[in-house]
What we know:
The chain is an alpha/beta fold. It folds into 2 domains: 4-121, Cobalt-precorrin-4 Transmethylase, domain 1, CATH 3.40.1010; 124-237, 2-Layer Sandwich (Methyltransferase, Cobalt-precorrin-4 Transmethylase, Domain 2), CATH 3.30.950. 33% of the residues lie in helices and 18% in strands. Strand 6, helix 7 (145-150) and strand 7 form a beta-alpha-beta unit. Helix 3 (65-81) runs parallel beside helix 4 (99-110). The radius of gyration is 23 Å and the shape is globular. Bound molecules: S-adenosylmethionine (SAM).
Amino acid sequence: MTGSIVIVGTGITLGSHISPLSRSYIENADVVFAGVADGITELWLKEMHQDVRSFAPLYAEGKSRHQTYQQMIDLMLAEVRLGKKVVGAFYGHPGVFAYAPHKVIELARAEGYAAHMEPGISAADCLHAELGIDPGKVGCQYFETSQYMFYKRSIDPTAYLVLWQVGIAGDKSMARFATGVAYREVLVELLTQHYPLNHEVMLYEAPSLPFQQARIDKLPLSALPQAQMNLKTTLVVPPGKALIKNQAVLDKLAVIRAAEQQPALSHTATAEPPEGEYRLDEL
Ligand SMILES: C[S@@+](CC[C@H](N)C(=O)[O-])C[C@H]1O[C@@H](n2cnc3c(N)ncnc32)[C@H](O)[C@@H]1O
């Protein structure tokens, strides 16, 4: 079983987000498949390897992305079975909101081939950096927008809510590049179960090129249906409510702490996190 596959992440911003290890896998591969967001990133990959095969022609409006993903998997596995060192290079983090990268690793391993994933910088990483959102502060929920709409999900409005693929909110066909106002109105209606219509949300797009600026548009929830969105847009919903103390648990912990009666801990026993904010223990 000489064939192998490594799935790497190329990051979001061209050239600067890839790890040295991922770059090395690309340079030493027999064949590189490119599941990246644009032609410029493909050209950049071609500077690293002479045999880069683009997945871009597999996408088409009206064609189910399920079919596209299956084609990607088949193409990569065919080369692995020929005994080649295959690299699949996907934009962002290849394991974040991405079906084909996980599936091809699972199938290759099931056939006895070496297969693993190398992380990349995700849109999530850019979002946490640029919007100054620390997921440890009050928590952060990630959902794929349509899944959030199709299923009864529990939302915690005291934490951040990040909705991915909001530009195709509510699309059941998996064959569209955009959905319209009526779909987003359903999304807004769903969100108003937890947030008022004047709640401020953000539309975020991290820059694909180093000289570009991020899009950070703040708008009331009510304006979401008319807002401009594309396949790169992520919706960020800040908390709508303050954290509520779980007094029953706090009381139980206080009893345990009192029973421990360790003098070494006594000086920290009264330290409280700031109100409405979870304490982040520095490691
Ligand atoms: C199929 S997922 C792929 C995510 C990718 N694997 C990653 O790690 O960022 C596509 C979704 O990721 C988010 N996304 C992709 N590129 C983005 C960008 N430049 N800025 C913000 N969000 C982005 C959007 O929500 C988009 O609909």
